[in-house]
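Protein in question passed on here:
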Amino acid sequence: MRLAGKLAAEILNFIEPYVKPGVNTLLLNDLVHDYTHKKGAISAPLNYKGFPKSICTSINDVVCHGIPKKEDILKDGDIINIDVTPILDGYHGDTSKTFKVGKVSPEIEQLLIDTEKAMWIGIEQVKPGSRINDISDAIDDFLTAKRYGIVRDLMGHGIGRKFHEDPQVPHFRQTKKLAKIEPGMTFTIEPMVNLGTFEVTFSKQDKWTVRTKDGKWSAQYEHTILATTTGYEILTKL
């Protein structure tokens, strides 16, 4: 898991210089696909339940699962979440980051700052004796006070030999206790944060693309976390 996570971090680091105005998302996909293979790994999203590409590229009001396309050309002021999951020696490393394309507005800049901070607040709850709902509640306390919409239809998840495993990791306040965090557990923390409503729509055309219901923009950051006997280790950080 450490090796897969490190590779995932390397992939995001590799693709960052290519995120600029005039670049299409299919090129980003192809670059990551080739880089992943050169590192002796494969891209988990490709053909996963029919997903047609190697990464997810989610622009502006696309919350997640955006499909790379030649027609999707980045322009100045956009934001794009790039989500990568290499499989290395049978293990998955899952991470994502929302990149700025050129210069973004102050409101969007703050959205990115707050979304990333929310992820770190969630990660800090991973310690002996804590539960998954401690992550959820801490993230909600931070974001709801700022009047953001926290996506509820999609969550973090356990990960290892399989792409998605238990436990589910919500990022909004829970009404009951969830799973106890035990040393050795590996899961993602990946809040999806909207400028408006938490509600989203799922594309009826491609069956994958998730957008905000009100068309306002959304951001996301994600790390794969290992729970340890003393706290946590971030597996997808260089």
In short: The chain is about 25% helix and 25% strand. Residues 65 and 208 are 6 Å apart (CA to CA). The first strand starts at residue 42 and ends at 43.
